[in-house]
Amino acid sequence: MRGGLGILIAVGLAVVLLLVPGCARDGDGQKAGQGPNVLLIAVDTLRADRLGCYGSDLGATPRLDALAAEGVRFERAFSHAPWTLPSFASLYTSQAPPGHGAGGWRGELRQLPEAARTVAECFRDAGYATAAVINVDFLGTEFHMTQGFEHVDFEAYPNNLEVRNATRTTDAAVKWLRARRERSFFLLVHYFDPHLVYSPPAKFRRRFAAPQDRNNTRWVFGKDAQLAAYRRGWVQFEAGTIRRAEMLYNGEVAYTDQEVGRLLDALDDLNLKSSTLVVLTADHGEEFLDHGSFEHGHTLYNELVHVPLILRYPGRLEPRVVGEMVGHVDIAPTICELVGVEPDPAFSGCSLVGLLVGSGKWEPHAIALEGNFWGWPFRGWIEDGYKLIRGPVGAKLFDLGSDFGETRDLASAAPERVSRMTADMSAAFDALAGAGHAARGSVELPDDVRRRLESLGYVGGPPETADNAPTSAPTTRSQPASQQASQPAPGTDRDR
Ligand SMILES: [Zn+2]
Asked: What is the number of structural domains in the chain?
């Protein structure tokens, strides 16, 4: 067993690694504002394991697989939170959730502090044209998430069935690309389709839906009233219903793949392929009973935080697959180094350039997880190949090397590792909260924004129930095994 000094050293080392990564740098500098372009594609709610290049046999993602084949694919990349707002805030600020403070819990929502500096601000200040095509209010001005973007393209929606779809999202991005002038650009494109409601276009429904749903475009899953009832614990879904929903989700993934492909084709058509770094990732995944529950925002298991991460930069990055565990906080420093833009000093992640070029310059560092919206406020910590998930009462420990699906809890078998990782995590979280912006205070939303978020099921938390009480960790917010039959109400398909 380690002595107190050893623990102190370990804690100190973890904090230093997290806060002051001292990352090796491999890139050469570019003249600011005239460097390569950056296209950051973020697909909402995209599980890594639905991509062929991550092992799926669905055949749903030929375009993303082709992108990966041309670039560098990270097999083990993690978002820092299982829902949109805190996850994107980490991507933008290179801070884990306790550092940037954006997020919320059970209906209370916190915006990104204005003092936090985003990667878009770094690019804007370096003279780049910056733009964001976004499809959810969590990425909008009310949450201070448009900091640094000179141009923001967002369409309000009356309900969650009518959020701008991937076709129109790609159209908006291509329109901006065609209209841009001489400056280099930093463009974020956010696709929302794999998020509820699951309602893929007919072509993908016919291919991926359960047999009884292939020609029934009225069967969609996750409309706002249904979602609100589920999130409040008023209805639960049979396992068979979740499976049918999952097949529709797969269709949404395939549809998004097609439209991301069309965006990449446009880049090619505009002769921008060789001068543009493309980064593709997701803010979080989606659970389909992997650990007994459904959807996202309620646990820190890998079906929610293991995300795809692909970088393509023709002529600069040779195709390769990287196995090291990395986090979203590493992306902003990586983009900055690759294209020669000065990163913000507060960025806490490590540039991945050493891994991208295979130089070996890489110092493994712990990955912090936080930010549940519906479940109890779990914290997670990935270190030395193990993952710790701590709830208010208990802890679970998984060996991600041998058990990436997190089916064997090792906490009782490895109490020393649990206590060591808990100490590392607590010290790092305290340091992040102290050093970061972390302004706490719920945001007052205008009525229209609140209504839109309610239509996605996000405002107004569920009542405390036996399922989400903190008696053990982690819990799930509902147990479909209780089998209260509830068929989704039929609705109309989205117009695509
Ligand atoms: Zn999301």
From this structure: 1
User: How many CA atoms within 13 Å lie on the side-chain side of 69?
Assistant: 9
Q: Find the 147 Cα to ligand 1 centroid distance in Å.
A: 19
Question: Which contiguous run of DSSP H or E holds residue 18?
Answer: helix 4-19
Pairing of strands 379-383, 386-390: antiparallel
What are the start-end ranges of the H helices in 180-223?
202-208
Return mean pLDDT, the chain. 85
Q: Which two tokens mark 299?
A: 């646990």
Q: What is the pLDDT of residue 436?
A: 60
- For residue 468, with 0-12 CB atoms within 10 Å meaning exposed, 13-18 middle and 19 or more buried, which class applies? buried
**pTM score over 0.90:** no
Is pLDDT above 90 for 347?
yes
**What is the 296 CA–ligand 1 centroid distance (Å)?**
8
Q: What is the DSSP string of 248-261?
A: HHHHHHHHHHHHHH
Start-to-end Cα distance in the chain: 61
Question: At 328, which CATH number?
Answer: 3.40.720.10
Give residue 416 CA to ligand 1 midpoint distance, Å.
35
Does 482 have pLDDT greater than 50? Answer: no
Distance 165 CA to ligand 1 centre (A): 15
| Ligand 1 centroid from CA 133, angstroms | 15
Q: How many CB atoms lie within 10 A of CB 148?
A: 20
Show the domain range for 126. 4-482
Tally: H helices and E strands in the chain: 14, 17
Assigned domain for 493 exists: no
CA of 192 to the centre of ligand 1 (A): 8
